[in-house]
TrEMBL record:
Domain Helicase C-terminal: start-end pairs: 368-553
Organism: Bombilactobacillus mellifer
Domain (Helicase ATP-binding) ranges: 152-321
Alphabetic keyword roster: ATP-binding, Helicase, Hydrolase, Nucleotide-binding
GO molecular function term, any single one: helicase activity
Protein name: Uncharacterized protein
UniProt cross-references to Pfam families, sorted A to Z: DEAD, Helicase_C
Length: 864
């Protein structure tokens, strides 16, 4: 029967893309849609409109063919463009409703259409009512699964699953819904939601908390975001947990609490497993650890044709495996290419796979284009502007805002004031937000970034300039996306990254259609692209993903074997490789050694076993045991050559430097301690780019002392600027050149951004990873559960004050914890426990209010 149906479908749709009349109509539609977008006169006659609707209706019914997803997406593109041109046209609304019902696209509420009653209309109504009932999301009143969401949702409860879907398909929503319904259905399990960046931890954890609301406390669950928040864990604990963590954090959690059970783990943005980045290796080790626990794992990735590749990481699990690649998208994007050199604009014709010229439309500059959106929409549209580098992102946003007036908006003025108070009065971002403009880069402080995203979602910030943080799962609504480069940094965007990026416009719950403007910038612009670059990205199919274990070629494995048999864990034979390749191979080697020791058969070990025999594995273990007298563990960030030195130094009395009676740290003691860490962990080899550089370490020591002493971010930045002011010679290093510090606003912003970057990437990542291991070994040697001078905890929370640390473990930010501490009317201490006033929900600080709302659900017992 299926074969017969496929033959019928082939007869109907096999050559539909070659239909000359469809091509003519579609080309005309693109022209007139463009006229509408740019405020020009537009006209489609009734005959063309009618036939376009017929083609759209027909294409929506394509099934079972390789091209069916494209046909369905094209159907939506046609009807959404028609709807945009002919607003409130009843015939278009009727056909649109038929199409969306046919495609199970219930992402937007449909208008009540008063049409002539007929038998067909009644039958359609009954069929769609039945489908809606079948697709109703469990636990909701009126929400409905769209497209293939229900199929994915059902499989989450049974199998190991890997699926791919467009950016707008609600992948993380499915996982949150599954976890919510499991908990409300009285399941008593732990769950993990793995995200690629720290920035997403707060977004996802807040959504999960609000999904469950009072159900968290009623069902005895807690959302946990870091290892420190689980300090009171024991197996008899009455609580179960939802862990929202990066792969590194979840790995360290399982190392610290090996008895924790994890029946279900959702790995979001799973394409990062294939990313050419040293952090990718943490995923392989994490999955190896989860296999021991027999966890059921669901991988979700955008726009990849072979999601089954990630199921190869699961080898010893007794669960069935299922993979699904979804190409249908509930929303559409319309690509334009806009050339700011020859002042031309073209629109992409997906049927002919080329850009067609728009002869009567011109825009002179990027800023003219943005202004035209504001003018034509009466300042209601929202725009995202993607830039390949941080300097371009900040520079363009500042240039664009120069000619704008302040909005005189209370919320934006308050945000600007808070940025000045938290960061610096000269920080560009404070001036920009007052004008409804902002930039979004990786090192922005969490509170500021959250506020920027909130005001953008509310519509008060209209234009947001951003780096590739847009591609890391941050969900922001946009009517228009402007892409200024086909690069990410200096590297070309991959087809997958490009599709992930353009999926940021046309978002569920915002708009069913979004415009993407691919800009050809002036020749002076760093990272500029040409039209052919964009044609290739639009026309290319999504590339199949590969596992980074492909690095373990025969030659690499044989060289690793020689190194290990010689007792060389630094793998000096690979020192000339690129940083990510060297560090990834090294992490794979550490995982491999742990697998041998524990008789685990991971995909990493299997790769090595192609060229290393079982006997040679035992010889390697014997050699390394003899040399380092230490076992291997699950921490692939640190090897036994490092831990053996660390344990020896701890035995000889090495400890973290202590605060004196005046709550001060001695700079020289701290610097000596960091130099000692360099000697123990061989930073000059493993971390030569940053903390392995002794000159940089002197500056890092200053920032580190201030950070763990609880100094406010603004004061840390002010002291950095002050130091440059008193030591101006060659004080600024920017774009690979040194400059004397001249106290200008632009140079102050360079210092501010450098300082923020050090806190985010050096303190909270580099130092934190090593201090975590130091603290672990100190606890083991001293036989204590907690250290009274735990620098890992101090650096994680940016203070050594116990009350502020407790507040942050409950869910408050560093800045909010400082605010509460300065207002004793909001807390109470009975000498055993701290309690907070529920009046915190009414304070003037917007971030503090939002944090309090979440914490009241997650930790209701601490409020009085």
């Amino acid at each position: 029967m299926k074969t017969t149906n496929r033959i019928v479908m082939q007869e109907f749709f096999g050559d539909i893309m070659s239909n000359k009349y469809l091509k003519v109509l579609f080309s005309k539609l693109l022209d007139e849609y463009s006229n509408k977008v740019f405020g020009k006169d537009f006209q489609i006659d009734l005959s063309a409109k009618r036939d376009l609707m017929r083609f759209a209706d027909l294409l929506a019914h394509s099934r079972m063919l390789k091209e069916s997803s494209y046909h369905q997406n094209l159907s939506q593109q046609i009807i959404f463009m028609l709807e945009n041109i002919f607003v409130d046209d009843i015939s278009i609304q009727f056909v649109k409703q038929r199409i969306l019902f046919s495609l199970n696209n219930y992402s937007f509420p449909n208008k009540e259409l008063h049409t002539t009653q007929s038998g067909d209309a009644l039958l359609n109504y009954l069929v769609n009512s039945y489908k809606k009932d079948e697709l109703k999301i469990p636990g909701s009143e009126n929400k409905i699964f769209i497209g293939d969401q229900k199929e994915i949702y059902d499989k989450m409860s049974r199998n190991n699953l890997s699926f791919s879907a467009p950016t707008s398909m609600g992948k993380s929503f499915l996982a949150r819904t599954y976890i919510k319904n499991e908990i409300l259905g009285n399941k008593k399990n732990n769950y993990a939601f793995v995200v690629p960046t720290k920035a997403l931890i707060n977004e996802i954890s807040s959504k999960i908390i609000n999904d469950l609301g009072n159900g968290l406390s009623q069902k005895k669950y807690r959302v946990i975001r870091s290892v420190g928040e689980l300090n009171g864990y024991n197996q008899g604990n009455i609580y179960h947990y939802i862990f929202v963590m990066t792969p590194e954090r979840l790995m360290y959690l399982l190392i610290s609490f090996p008895s924790i059970d994890l029946p279900f783990v959702f790995i979001d943005e799973a394409q990062n497993i294939s990313k050419h980045d040293e952090r990718s290796a943490f995923y392989y080790n994490l999955i190896d650890m989860l296999e021991v626990k027999h966890s059921r794992i669901a991988f979700a990735a955008p726009n990849i044709p072979n999601p089954d590749i990630y199921l190869e990481l699961i080898s010893n699990n007794d669960k069935e495996k299922d993979a699904r690649s979804i190409e249908f998208s509930p929303v559409v994007q319309i690509p334009f290419v806009i050339n700011f050199i020859d002042k031309t604009i073209k629109i992409y014709n997906s049927i002919n796979e080329h850009f067609q010229a728009l002869n009567n439309i011109k825009e002179n500059t990027l800023f003219d284009l943005i202004d035209s959106f504001s003018y034509l929409s009466n300042n209601t549209t929202q725009n995202l502007i993607y830039c390949n580098k941080i300097d371009n992102t900040i520079g363009l946003s500042v240039q664009y805002a120069e000619k704008l007036e302040d909005k005189n908006d209370v919320e934006l003025d308050k945000l600007a004031s808070d940025i000045k108070s938290e960061i610096n009065e000269d920080y560009y971002l404070a001036d920009l937000v007052k004008k409804g403009v902002a930039y979004h880069v990786s090192f922005l402080p969490k509170r500021v970034r959250i506020r920027i995203e909130k005001e953008y979602r509310s519509g008060k910030i209209k234009n947001l300039f951003s780096t590739s943080t847009l591609m890391e799962g941050v969900n922001l609504p946009a009517d228009n996306l402007i892409i200024t480069s086909n690069k990410k940094g200096n590297a070309n965007l991959s087809p997958m990254d490009f599709r992930n990026l353009i999926g940021r416009t046309g978002r569920l719950n915002h708009s069913m259609i979004g415009n993407v403007f691919l800009a050809i910038m002036p020749e002076s612009f760093s990272g500029r692209s040409n039209e052919q670059d964009y044609v290739e990205l639009l026309g290319s199919s999504n590339e199949k993903q590969k596992l980074n274990t492909d690095l373990l070629t025969k030659n690499v494995v044989l060289l690793v074997k020689i190194s290990l048999l010689e007792g060389d864990l630094t793998l000096k034979v690979f020192h000339k490789l690129s940083n990510w390749k060297y560090k990834t191979i090294r992490k794979f080697v550490l995982q491999y050694l742990n697998d041998i020791q524990n008789s685990r058969q991971s995909i990493v070990r299997k790769k090595f076993q192609h060229y290393i025999t079982h006997q040679e594995e035992q010889e390697i273990l014997t050699k390394l045991y003899e040399k380092y007298n230490d076992n291997f563990d699950n921490d692939v960030n640190i090897s036994t050559d490092q831990t053996s030195k660390l344990k020896l130094m701890i035995k000889q009395g090495m400890r973290y430097p202590r605060f004196d009676d005046n709550e001060q740290l001695n700079y020289q003691e701290v610097l000596n301690f960091l130099d000692q860490m360099d000697s123990i962990f061989n930073w000059k080899q493993y971390e030569k780019g940053r903390i392995g550089n002794p000159n940089k370490r002197r500056w890092y020591a200053v920032i580190l002392i201030q950070w763990i002493s609880g100094v406010g971010l603004r004061n840390i930045i002010n002291k950095a600027i002050e130091y440059k002011r008193y030591n101006p010679k060659n004080a600024i290093y920017h774009n690979q050149k040194y400059y004397d510090f001249n106290d200008s606003k632009s140079q102050k912003n360079i210092v501010i951004n450098d300082t923020l970057n050090v806190i985010q990437n050096v303190l909270l990542f580099d130092f934190a990873n090593y201090f975590l291991r130091v603290s672990k070994e100190l606890k083991h040697y001293l036989n204590v559960k907690n250290l009274d001078n735990d620098w890992y905890e101090f650096i994680e929370y940016g203070t050594h004050d116990k009350f502020r640390i407790w507040l942050q473990k409950c869910g408050y930010s560093r800045e909010s914890a400082y605010y509460i501490e300065r207002h004793p009317e909001f807390f109470y201490n009975d000498n055993m426990s701290y309690y907070l006033s529920s009046m915190l929900i009414d304070v003037d600080d917007a971030n503090l209010r939002d944090e309090t709302r979440d914490i009241m659900y997650n930790h209701p017992e601490i409020f009085i």
